Amino acid sequence: xxxxxxxxxxxxxxxxxxxxxxxxxxxxxxxxxxxxxxxxxxxxxxxxxxxxxxxxxxxxxxxxxxxxxxxxxxxxxxxxxxxxxxxxxxxxxxxxxxxxxxxxxxxxxxxxxxxxxxxxxxxxxxxxxxxxxxxxxxxxxxxxxxxxxxxxxxxxxxxxxxxxxxxxxxxxxxxxxxxxxxxxxxxxxxxxxxxxxxxxxxxxxxxxxxxxxxxxxxxxxxxxxxxxxxxxxxxxxxxxxxxxxxxxxxxxxxxxxxxxxxxxxxxxxxxxxxxxxxxxxxxxxxxxxxxxxxxxxxxxxxxxxxxxxxxxxxxxxxxxxxxxxxxxxxxxxxxxxxxxxxxxxxxxxxxxxxxxxxxxxxxxxxxxxxxxxxxxxxxxxxxxxxxxxxxxxxxxxxxxxxxxxxxxxxxxxxxxxxxxxxxxxxxxxxxxxxxxxxxx
Length: 440
Description:
Blueprint: H1 3-7, H2 10-41, H3 44-69, H4 74-91, H5 98-127, H6 130-135, H7 141-156, H8 159-175, H9 182-203, H10 217-224, H11 232-237, H12 239-269, H13 274-297, H14 302-323, H15 326-354, H16 357-392, H17 401-416
């Protein structure tokens, strides 16, 4: 079942429309946040603090998110998260104080960490036919991967659109004579409006699960015995989660390093213009779409797909740093985008297929927490490492710091693939019939 068939499912289509609009607001708001912080502080270090805002919610908010998504129905969690973020986005730009802006930006990220696992846990429920759901028949793994790919596209596909919208709004506010922080108020309030669109889209969907038949017998027995805790540590006790999370972590490492060093690498190493960087970002998107098409046509076992795609991502980053060729960098952007997408979609699909009920919610909370934490931490560390090498004026192996750090990051990603293991679910996890593979 392909893209058209998935979007013909009314409830899934409504969710994707809401997510596309909400993601557009998120990326527009993220760019506005960076510019707003720079204007308030005049410090590039303070702008770097925006990355920390994406790091801390994953470290501190994940336990809270784990409790929320395992105790309330997904629909309630998602609708409440959107309404709460409406108020937060409205409040954020009202006072031009740095601590005020940081506080609300942090709070928005924590609430978002509750929303995402609830959304991803609902995807398998939305793409199943009612007859399949009633008789407990398993959905096709490839179909679920397409649905996850569409979901991912609603987020990352909005990056260039959000950048363009932010530039247009900033230009319009400057022409209108708005000065100071009021130039950004409209942007953040537009972001608040997009959360409201998402809220009404979710409200129009009658049910996002879990249905009574979705929960496995062992799950129900654990609840009756009082063993169901629903904390973040409980997610890490699940063997399927421990099998996938190393892959998520190393993919995040590669994404974070490229995110942090990409602009400097293009400008100083490749000697390319901002247009070249824009082309690189666009080619990353082309690669992501290509990766989705390849995994849809392929019949790989999911853990093999995750390992292979992660290793390919690492090799691509390492080669981009070592070669420092603009031609290879353009080719590498396509390969990198495809590999990263295949690995992440494979990881989400594996968790969805392997677990049901509250365990699925819990596992996907861990997935998003590790992805966000790893991305932000890698971006901070790779940027700091490059700055230190620049300050020490050293060029090991004759490579300037951005090249060296990028190449080493790729090698670390490759090494990390050896930590990705097929877990073999134990009896207490109640793995579903599709765990870890594709139907024959």
